[in-house]
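Same chain as my last thread, 478 residues:
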Amino acid sequence: MKGGFNYNMMGRLVSVTLTALVCTTILLWAWEKNPFADTLLLARERFPIPSIDFLEDSPKNSSKSTKTDRNIQGKDIEETNKIQNSGAAPIQGKDTPSATIDETKKIENSGVAPTDYAFSPIMDGHNLNATSTDQRKVCNFAKGRWIPDIRRPLYSGFHCKQWLSAMWACRLTQRPDFSFEGYRWKPDSCEMPDFERSSFLRRMQDKTIAFIGDSLGRQQFQSLMCMATGGEESLEVQNVGKEYGLVKRRGAIRPDGWAYRFPKTNTTILYYWSASLCDLVPLNSSNRTTDVAMHLDRPPAFMRQYLDRFDVLVLNTGHHWNRGKINGNRWVMYVDGKPNQDKRRAQIDRAKNFTIHSVVRWLDSQLPSHPHLKTFFRTISPRHFFNGDWNTGGSCDNTTPLSGGSEVVQEGSSDVVIEAALRGTKTKILDITALSQLRDEGHVSRYTIRGTAAGNDCLHWCLPGIPDTWNELLIAQI
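reply #2:
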């Protein structure tokens, strides 16, 4: 009996052991297949635990983090399920450690995109640096709408005479209506901060902003000068054009550009005229009537010479790319240091496209050695000539704001040439084409200081006006 009892007890023990092993195996298999396992992993990726515990290679910290995992699992899963059911983008949960929340606020306030900043924790073999499809989307400043704003304009059109060309100061002309001044641009996917000149100058302390382009680039430069000074004359602002060789040459109507410095913050804003963004070299420097080599594959010498002094560079080109301008300026297309022999490349659109791609590629090659430099390429400013062109009776007499609509809903840029050239590069697009297309009432039109005009200017803008918004978009992206 005693031996039978022992035999039965051993059999029961083996049965219980086998049953326990089978149940454990089933539970482990079920856990791996359970949807909550994926949910927990997703929760950990969306609500990362501070990395400091994972960077310390000690058993004590390892056990501490495991304990923390267990404590927040239930709440993480609950919060994650709420996010998935609502379709909303992930946010920091209320149980997220304060260190993580503080770091997140720093990122949001600094304007750095989530993909540019990493907490770097490694958990369960998963790298939480991986970009999530649910991360905050990059703001599309060009998609939005114009809305009324009684705080506009940003400066006086009467008093900014020190910086603003009289031909663009529409308040000094016979124009009767200025309702175009009372609107601001509101992007759909993000908030654009209100411009405040003292804050702007503090942010730009010890920095140089350079505009290189045509007369529309000059308008943007003058607009920013008026914005930064409040549209008032200032004896403190220094003319530092000589530092950049921007002086009026003998016989010239004006210098090739201007440069001004705000001494309190050591902020410099300059403009250099380069309508084509090509390097222009007279074929005979002693003869002003000689042809000029237009090097399509070489950026302007000014840009090459002073690039290391720039912190923000804004380029633009477009309206001088027509046969009349090229022939009138006696520009002769050059490639590889010799006259262009490619007839297809000589076509205006192809030559322009080739030049833009060349400039952008050159900038991309320079950025590794200029890590402080931010580069932007502004898209083309739209013309609004109706019933003809500038020399065939075209006009832009509309004075009703936004008569053609107030909203831009498209995703891509209307300037496909610039958009394509910048794709895959580190130069950012300053996309102003579609939003400016809605503002045909904001041009200089037929109004002048003298009250008479031989034609209509439906290319340049009144200042204050639309170029002020271009600068707000630029500052927001800086």
